[in-house]
Amino acid sequence: MARYITITTWKPENARALNMRYNDLITGKAPKEVIEGFAKIKLITTEISLGSRTSFMIYEADDEDTVTTNVVSMYFQEVCHQVTYPVLSFEDYLKVRKLMPPEKMPKPEKPWKD
User: Fold this and answer.
1) Would 35 be classed as within a structural domain?
2) 42-84 pLDDT, tens per residue?
3) Domain extent for 81
4) Which pTM value belongs to this model?
5) How does residue 36 score in pLDDT terms, banded at 50, 70 and 90?
6) Is 102 part of a structural domain of the chain?
7) Structural domains counted in the chain
8) For residue 6, which of 99, 91, 101, 72 has the smallest C-alpha distance?
9) 1-39: string of b/e by CB count within 10 Å (b at 16+)?
10) pLDDT of 114 strictly over 70
11) CATH number for position 75
């Protein structure tokens, strides 16, 4: 099961439409495919900042459900902007770090620049 964070932002003029679509999803009025896709998501948390019109949703989904769960994003794409990142829990990060500790990594030839 993979873990993701989706960051959603919206414009003031789209707030009502976004709210209506989300309400349709949680009340079962959204299209069947959207409800089925959302049911395959294991929601960990959702945090919302109304002042900055941004929400953060952390969830897990099975790789084989990628197509089904992306229907949910498609349902919202006209009323908001979403960016999704695959992420690790901090516990999993510590496991990765144990496999590749910083002292085993080669030093860069020159400092990194962004």
Assistant:
1) yes
2) 999 999 999 999 999 999 999 899 899 999 999 999 999 999 9
3) 2-89
4) 0.82
5) very high
6) no
7) 1
8) 72
9) eebbebebebeeebeeebeebbeebeeeebeeebbebbe
10) no
11) 3.30.70.100
- Contact indicator for 54, 7 with CB cutoff of 8 Å: yes
Q: At what angle do helices 32-39 and 15-27 cross, to 10 degrees?
A: 80
Nearest 5°: the CA angle 70, 38, 65 is 50
Cβ-contact 18, 73 below 8 angstroms: no
Asked whether residue 95 is assigned to any structural domain, the reply reads no
In a domain, 39, yes or no: yes
pLDDT of residue 98: 93
Contact 25, 38 (CB under 8 A): yes
Question: How far from the centroid of its chain's Cα atoms is residue 67's Cα?
Answer: 15
Place of tokens 């948390």: 45
- Tokens 């769960």 locate to 69
Question: In angstroms, rounded to a whole number, what is the distance separating the alpha carbons of residues 58 and 43?
Answer: 6
